[in-house]
């Protein structure tokens, strides 16, 4: 997932191919039989025809795991064993007792011992599910409403991305399908626990049991999982959090609901995931403040570098004020000038005001004023002008007008605003600056700017206007004196 200006996390759209993360093909995450049914594919009980579940029962209602006399028949084909590994691993995020932990880990060991080998699919799928579980625990709305909110959020993210519309539609359909699968799975377990359409918060002990089970799986997989696998699993775990982020309570990242995902991501980094910064930039771009906060903490714990200044640029470009606050206060981002100038150039008043309130002064504001003037963002220019000290404007007045004219793109409304506003606070000085540009033979002065000030703001234009005014005054006085005029 390179720089986020052309992608969304989980997809590569401009190159016409799905990402190598969990959503690239349906078979990568869930097999046809288990992913498309309306039932929960996390329940071993629901997969009787495929994993000999008549010998296995996992039920959260009574918080027990029963591993009977023969969980996995050694005669099962590898694909069935791989499916069984995925289904069993998914169940770890609903563990609640030590007995269940023992039953699930023993089952995973037996499935692997009998020939399951697709650790990559199992890791990607369960990372995605764990993230959804963690996110749903933070939400007040029902799971049914969550599906609608998720679909809307996904649509918004796709709209913000560049790329072929057909590919974006296909990618969106796949992600929505897998997210709905995860929510159905969560809903099924929630109903088993008697909570109808809500998700229980896990206790610290339950969270520890779940993370222990995942660590056991990683240990069993050993070197069968590569650095690339861990990287893609990290990506898969981060993606749902960006879909749900808009409804997280402030401070969710430091609460117990986020403990599972923090532990999961930490283990994936330890295993070799190297895309923390990429996911961090994506989260910043889409305003996923709580995920940004989590990734900052993970980077600090693991001594990893994340580009907080570039992230601030992405967040400000998309006007994600809450994320900007987080990046400055918790990530110590300090590179304000670039984002401020780009916001002024685009006319994003909210972001410009935020930077001014954050302490941008003098030269930074002067450059932002120039950017707003050059793109004819008169509203932003009017806001910034009183904040720029007069001595700075006096010293740089010619350069401000020259730069604005050079990058004007054909419209000189911003230049006209400055001159009409007497931006130097002294009409004589303002006219002198304009006249200087009108008479300049400097090649750096844009021809359009020179022609504009020559016609409207030069000394010659002033004298011509004065002359026309005097002539007009004389004609008016003749009319008033004689009551008639050849001109009238």
From TrEMBL:
Query: What species was this sequence derived from?
Result: Hibiscus syriacus
**InterPro entries reported for this sequence:** Ankyrin_rpt-contain_sf, SKIP35
Coiled coil region boundaries: none
The protein, known as: Ankyrin repeat protein SKIP35
Q: What is the lineage of its organism?
A: Eukaryota, Viridiplantae, Streptophyta, Embryophyta, Tracheophyta
Instruction: Tell me the domain of life.
Output: Eukaryota
């Amino acid at each position: 997932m390179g720089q986020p200006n052309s992608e969304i996390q989980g997809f590569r759209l401009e190159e016409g191919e799905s990402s190598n993360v969990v959503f690239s093909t349906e078979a990568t995450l869930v097999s046809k039989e288990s992913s498309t049914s309306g039932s929960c594919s996390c329940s071993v009980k629901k997969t009787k025809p495929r994993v000999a579940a008549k010998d296995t029962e996992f039920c959260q209602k009574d918080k027990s795991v029963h591993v009977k006399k023969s969980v996995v028949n050694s005669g099962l084909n590898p694909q069935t064993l791989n499916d069984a590994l995925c289904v069993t691993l998914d169940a770890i995020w609903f563990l609640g007792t030590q007995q269940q932990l023992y039953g699930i880990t023993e089952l995973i060991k037996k499935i692997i011992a009998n020939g399951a080998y697709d650790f990559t699919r199992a890791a990607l799928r369960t990372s995605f599910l764990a993230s959804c579980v963690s996110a749903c625990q933070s939400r007040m709305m029902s799971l049914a409403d969550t599906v609608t909110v998720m679909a809307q959020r996904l649509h918004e993210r796709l709209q913000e991305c560049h790329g072929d519309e057909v590919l974006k539609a296909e990618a969106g359909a796949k992600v929505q399908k897998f997210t709905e699968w995860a929510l159905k799975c969560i809903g099924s377990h929630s109903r088993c626990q008697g909570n109808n359409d809500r998700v229980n918060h896990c206790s610290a002990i339950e969270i520890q049991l779940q993370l222990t089970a995942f660590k056991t799986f990683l240990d069993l997989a050993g070197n069968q999982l590569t650095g690339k696998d861990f990287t893609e699993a990290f990506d898969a775990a981060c993606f749902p959090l960006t879909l749900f982020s808009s409804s997280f309570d402030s401070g969710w990242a430091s609460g117990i609901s986020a403990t599972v995902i923090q532990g999961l991501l930490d283990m994936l980094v330890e295993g070799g995931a190297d895309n923390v910064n990429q996911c961090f930039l994506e989260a910043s771009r889409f305003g996923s403040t709580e995920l940004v906060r989590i990734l900052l903490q993970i980077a600090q714990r693991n001594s990893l570098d994340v580009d907080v200044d570039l992230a601030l640029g992405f967040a400000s470009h998309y006007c994600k004020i809450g994320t900007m606050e987080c990046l400055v206060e918790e990530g110590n981002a300090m590179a304000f000038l670039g984002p401020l100038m780009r916001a002024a150039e685009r006319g994003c008043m909210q972001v410009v005001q935020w930077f001014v309130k954050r302490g941008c002064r003098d030269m930074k504001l002067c450059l932002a004023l120039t950017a707003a003037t050059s793109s004819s963002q008169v509203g932003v220019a009017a806001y910034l002008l009183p904040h720029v000290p007069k001595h700075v404007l006096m010293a740089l007045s010619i350069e401000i007008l020259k730069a604005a004219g050079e990058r004007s793109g054909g419209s000189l409304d911003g230049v006209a605003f400055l001159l009409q506003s007497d931006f130097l606070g002294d009409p004589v000085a303002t006219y002198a600056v304009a006249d200087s540009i009108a008479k300049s033979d400097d090649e750096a002065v844009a021809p359009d700017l020179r022609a504009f000030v020559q016609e409207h703001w030069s000394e010659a234009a002033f004298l011509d206007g004065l002359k026309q005014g005097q002539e007009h005054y004389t004609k008016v006085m003749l009319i008033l004196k004689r009551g008639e005029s050849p001109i009238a």
